[in-house]
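Worked example 2:
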Amino acid sequence: MKSNNIVIRLAAIITPLALFAAGAGVFWQGKGKAYPFETLRGETIMIRGRGLYRYDTVNSSSQEIGTDIVTMIIGQVGSGVPVDVVVSMIFFTISMSRIILGIITLKNFRG
């Protein structure tokens, strides 16, 4: 039974850290925009240019952000929070971020 106790303690440490890292990937977008980059093989790819994944391609960063969202959902459910509460929290966060973005945009537009 001692090993189970260690596993539970490690999970209690890892879960909030994973949620923090995944949250940074999802919610920290920063400033900047995508830009073209020519690879060593002569192909032109688009680099994301902002946020945590600013040096990754647009394609891979989209997949990484999706993985972060799944990590946040699984981490919340794994920590004992019911699934419907997690889904409600996600929709609330998205709607609040849209409201805040609208306020910031309006404030910048008015000067």
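The mean pLDDT is 79. Strands lie at 35-38, 44-47.
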